[in-house]
Amino acid sequence: MAAQATLERLGDTPSVADYLRALWRRRQFAVAIAVGEVRSQNMHTVLGNLWLVLNPLLQMGVYYLVFGVVIGTDRGVDNFLAFLAVGIFLFHYTQRSIMAGAKSLLKNQGFIRSIQFPRAVLPLATVLAHGLSFLPAGAVMVVIALATGESPHWTWLLLIPLFVIQTVFNVGMAFMMARLTDRFPDMQNVLPFVFRLLFYMSGVLFLADRFVTPETLVWFQLNPIWAMLSTGRGIILDGTLDGVLWLSAGGWAIFALVTGFLVFRAGERNYGRG
Amino acid sequence: MADTRQVLADQQPALDSAVTLVAQDAHVIYQVYEDRRAGLQELVSTRGRLRASRAIKAVNGVSFEARAGEVIGVIGANGSGKSTLLQAMAGLLPCTQGAIYARSQPVILGVGAALQPRLSGRRNIELGLLALGVSQEQVEEQFDEVVEFSGLDDFIDLPMRTYSSGMKARLHFAIATSVQPDLLLIDEALAVGDADFRGRSEERIRSLQANAGTVFIVSHRLSEIQRTCARVLWLCAGELAADGSPDEVLAQYREWVGRPRSRPPRQQRQQRRGRRRRQRRRERRVVRRQQRRLRHQAED
Predict the structure, then answer these.
(1) Which of A105, A155, A213, B84 could make an S-S bridge to A235, C-beta 3.0–4.6 Å?
(2) How confident is the model at residue A257 (pLDDT cuts 50, 70, 90)?
C-alpha cells in the first residue's frame, strides 16, 4: 500500500496552490529568461541596447511631426510633446508585452517539449523582459517632461505604482492571449489589428474629451488602457490624482491577472502540442 | 495531493514497492494540419475546418511496469512512436487515453532540445540548469564542471548559433546530465560528438544509470542495447510488439527488419479483429484518391 501512494499520475495539472508553489520555485528561471531576452534582442546591432532609448525617441519624433505639427491633434493640451510621450510609451509597453506574451508558448516549444515546469513561467518571463526594456523608455519619458518645462512634482513618484498596476494587467492579458494563441496560432494575425484599434480608442494621440462626443467617451472610459494612460498623464502633466481612474486601472489589472491565470492554468495539459 | 493519491490507490492494481513507473493503456494522439485543403466531405464532417487535419496515433495503447534498478531499451523503426512515448513518460505530452504513473518526475535527455541560439553558451548553461529545477546557488557551483565536460572553453561566451552541431550537442548533453534524476529517459543521446567525447559521455551515462532508479534508452544501435539493457520494449506503429529479454526481443526485431512489410507477431493477432473495418476504410481511401486524381485532371 505504501508503494502505491508514492506513484503519481504524469501530465496532470496540479491544484492552484501547488501550481503557484511550483511557479515560485522557478522564479529564478523566469528572471533568467527575461534577462536573456533583453540581452539578446539587440545583440546583433552595432548600437546594442542603446536602442532601448533610441527607439522610443525616434517614435516620439515621428508622431510629434505628424500629429503635433502636420495634422495638429494637440487641441486642448498645453504640453503636447510630454502628453504624447506618456501616451505612446505606456501604450507600447502594454502592446508589446501582450503580443510577445501571446507568442511565448509557440516560441519556446523547445523548452516545453523537453523539460517539465509550470508553463506560466513563459508568458510571465516575457512580460518581465518587456518590463525591463520599458525602464529606459520610462526614463526618456521623464526627461522629455522635464525638457518641455514640467517641474518635478511629488505625484511623479506614483509612476512606480502605476508601472506595477500596468505590469499586473499585462501579465494577466498575456496569460489569456498565450492560451488562445497556442490553440489558434491565427491569433498572431488578429492581435495587431486589435491593438491598432485600441491605439485609437485609448486616446494615445489626442485628448479624448476634446475630440469625441460624450456618448462615445463611455467607450474610452471602459477601456483599461485609456484609464492607465490618463492616470499617467494626470500625475506627470497636471500633478493631479483621479481616484476613479486609479480604481478603474487597478480593478482591471487584478481582474485580468486572476482571470488570466485561471484560464491559462486550465489549458496547461495541452501546451506545446501543435 | 492527498486526494489524487487516494484515487490512484483505488485505480491501480496491486504493486510492490520496487515499481517506479507504470504505463496503463497509454495513448498519445497528435492533431496535425496537412498541406492541402479539406475536401467537401471532410468540411461537413469537421464542421467547417478549412484545412485538412489528421489525427496521428503516435502511441496506441501501451502498457508496462518498470522496476527500480532496471535499464530498459526501447527499439523500433523510425516513426514507431519511441520518442513520443518517452515524452509522455516525462509528462510533457499528456496521454489522450490511459495514463502513466511514476514515483518521481522523470527527466528526459534528448539531443535536439531547448537551447536558445541567440544566447551565449554561458547563458544557456544557466538557463538550462534553472529550467531543470536547479537553484541559482547550485548553478554557480556546477557551472565550471559543465563547461569542462562540454569542452567548449573559449567558445563559452559566443552565441550558440555560431557553434557547430557537434558543439551544440555536447553542450546540451553536459547540461542535461549535470542533474542526477531518479527516472532517466535517454533519447538517442549516446552517439554525440567525436570519439573522445563519446567515450566520456558513455562513462557519464553509466554513472547516472548506477545511481538512477530506472533508465530508459531509445536507440537504433542494437549492439548498444544488447550491451546495456536487461529488458527491451519493441514499439511498432505505436503499439508494444514485444517486451522481454534483449536476446529474445532483438532476435524477433532483427527477423522483422529483414521483411519490414510484414506485421510483428502481437499485432497480427490484434489486426484480425479490426480487419474487416480496416478493409472498408482502405477501399474508401482508394475511391477518394481516384476522385482527387480526376478532379486534378479536370482542373488541368
Answers:
(1) A155
(2) very high
All residues of chain B having their beta carbon less than 8 Å from the beta carbon of residue A120 are none
Q: Which of A7, A32, A116 sits opposite B92 (nearest CB)?
A: A116
Q: Is B89 exposed, middle or buried (0-12, 13-18, 19+ CB in 10 A)?
A: buried
**Facing residue for B136 by CB, picked from A4, A28, A43:** A28
Range A48-76 average pLDDT: 83
Report CB contact under 8 Å: B131, A115: yes
Q: Give the chain B residue whose CA is nearest to the CA of A112.
A: B92
Coil, strand, or helix at residue B146?
helix
Whose cell is 490507490? That residue is B9
Mean of the pLDDT values across residues B158-169?
84
d(CA B291, CA B40) in angstroms, rounded, equals 12
What single string gives the DSSP state of each residue in B41-101?
Answer: HHHHHTTS-SEEEEEEEEEEEEEEEEETT-EEEEE-STTSSHHHHHHHHTTSS--SEEEEE
Interface test with A, best of B119, B126, B175 (most A CBs within 10 A): B119
Cell of B222: 542494437
**Residue B300 pLDDT level (bands cut at 50, 70, 90):** low
- Closest among A137, A61, A57 to A95, alpha carbons compared: A137
Which amino acid type is present at position A77? V
Q: What is the ipTM of this complex?
A: 0.77
- Position B1 pLDDT exceeds 60: no
For helices A80-107 and A121-147, give the axis angle rounded to 10 degrees: 170
Domain locations in chain A as residue ranges: 17-36+48-267
CB contact under 8 A, B91 and A112: no
Distances (CA, A) of B72 to A170, A230, B39, B171, B220: 46, 63, 44, 25, 14
- Are the Cβ atoms of A113 and B92 closer than 8 angstroms? yes
H/E run at residue A41: helix A27-41
Residue A5 pLDDT: 46
**A103-120, pLDDT tens digit by residue?**
999 988 888 888 888 999
Where is pLDDT greater, at B210 or B89? B89
Q: Chain A contacts of B107, Cβ < 8 Å?
A: 115
What is the per-residue pLDDT for B45?
A: 65
- Interface residue A7 vs chain B (CB under 8 A): yes
Indicate the angle between helix axes A27-41 and A16-25, nearest 10 degrees: 50
Residue of B nearest to A26 (CA): B133
What integer pLDDT is reported at residue A253 of this predicted model? 95
* A17 to A24, A200, B6, B267: CA distances (angstroms): 11, 40, 19, 44
Q: What is the pTM of this model?
A: 0.81
Please name the residues in contact with B211: beta carbons below 8 A apart, sequence gap of 6 or more.
Answer: B180
> A11 vs B115: CB contact, 8 Å cut-off?
no
Predicted confidence (pLDDT) at residue A14 exceeds the cutoff of 80:
yes
Residue B15 has phi, psi (to 5 degrees) of -125, 145
CA distance B129 to chain A (A): 9
Q: How close B118 comes to chain A (CA, Å)?
A: 6
The residue type at B159? P
Residue B45's alpha-carbon distances to B20, B31, B51, B283, in angstroms, are 43, 15, 12, 19
